[in-house]
Amino acid sequence: MLRTAKRAVLGAFRSAGYDVVKRGTVAVAEPTSAAPTIPAPPIAAASEAPPVHHSLGAVKSSPTEFHEAMARYESSSPIQDDGDPIVQALARDGLCIVPDFLPPDLVSQVHDQALPVAKRFRSREQTGPNRHRIFDECGFLRINSPENLAPLTARFFDHPRIHNVARSYLSGNGRRIERYLDYKHSNRIDTNVHPHFDNIYRMLKVFFYLNDIPDTHAPFTVWKRSHLKRPWRELPDYLYFADHPYGWGVVPLSITATFGKGEYGDIERVECTARAGTAIFCDVSAVHSASLLRDGYRLMLVDNWMMQANGKWLNPYHANATPPEGLV
Ligand SMILES: O=C(O)CCC(=O)C(=O)O
Ligand SMILES: [Fe+2]
User: Fold this and answer.
1) What gap in Å lies between CA 135 and CA 137, rounded to an integer?
2) Phi, psi of 45 (to 5 degrees)
3) How many A from CA of 192 to the centre of ligand 2?
């Protein structure tokens, strides 16, 4: 989602008559000196294939195939109600916020171990051995499987409650696809600020704040109950399923504006401001977004679980972007 949304942000600036220039690692938008002009449409050479990429003809799967796949998924992968209130909240709301998931003393020790690691990666003082992704232009970085560098992080990732929730909520088919330390350090365009969903199938991310996150500190934001399969989802879910260029899960304002009203009156935007030690269990097939870091930093652990069917990730589009073996 991240890279795709980044292209969308830059594209939006460009089409609004702005040049996007790079200053260091920060993308900055500046007004163009001349008034924007409308370029003449290119004249295709006779031998060129017509650009069908975004046309209706480019949709690879039919609505029938989509509906059949969703019906198979619904019947083969029910949520298992084991009585755990977190699983029940996920089923109902797509979200469960659990304060003090670990004892406060332990949380501050995990924080103190993890922050210097994140800073070393940011400054390039450390460049391995872990898989990591540094998005300087978006003001954050992610370090996978951080337990070898900050051993106390295992106290979160090994927590039996997470494993239990993943098993029940993902119908026994959940596998961890990756776990990482996420460090947001600068107030830049984080492309995840576009409301989006990560999948059309249930998918669990557990976000664990290692420092206090008031509204100035980029709280994770989610539209509670938007994971439920209702009419507004049909088209974006279908385009996602069909691997269409418009099907990357970004949900436009014209749709999020309907949330909280009328038939979607129960879809509620929740800005997850919370204290250090809070675990946010979220079905990221719900619409969610990052928010701006207006002060300080945000340090968190993320545990990411997805479903498999017949040994394959239940994730038709992003399957290309995520290694089939997973990234534990
Ligand atoms: O950083 C955030 O608050 C949200 C990131 C996000 O969209 C995700 O992890 O799926
Ligand atoms: Fe996301």
Assistant:
1) 5
2) -65, 150
3) 6
Do the domain assignments include residue 20? no
| Ion ligand 2, residues whose Cβ is below 5 A away | 198
192 within ligand 1 shell (Cβ under 6 A): yes
In a domain, 3, yes or no: no
Examine residue 326 and state whether it is found in any structural domain, yes or no: no
> Count of domains in the chain?
1
Which CATH number is 137's domain given? 2.60.120.620
Alpha carbon distance 74, 229 (integer Å) = 10
pLDDT in tens, 86-107: 999 999 999 999 999 999 999 9
Tens digit of each residue's pLDDT (9 = 90 or more) over 124-167? 999 999 999 999 999 999 999 999 999 999 999 999 999 999 99
Does any ligand 1 atom lie closer than 6 A to the CB of residue 288?
yes
* Domain membership flag for residue 105: yes
Does residue 283 have its Cβ closer than 6 Å to ligand 1?
no
Pocket test for ligand 1, best of 4, 144, 191, 192 (most atoms within 8 A of CB): 192
**What's the domain range around 299?**
85-320
